[in-house]
Amino acid sequence: MAKTKQQKSLSRWTKQKWTTASGKKSSETGEVYAPKKTIDRLKSTKKGKAKLAAANRKKRAATKKGKQHASHGLHKGKKR
Question: At what angle do helices 46-64 and 36-43 cross, to 10 degrees?
Fold first, then answer.
């Protein structure tokens, strides 16, 4: 039996190595979680570093307000 679209998406998602920019727990640092490839790509450019820093600020602000999820825009336009 063939996998559904959702099952394929979940399989791809679980194969990715998700982490924070520092490699520490998000609960300790307040950083956003993203696939390692995305983090590495963002950290390689000045514009990417600024985008990552802005996302982390938004994540920390949302966490401070007691929210679990933050609309930081890092995954905007991506199929996740």
Answer: 120
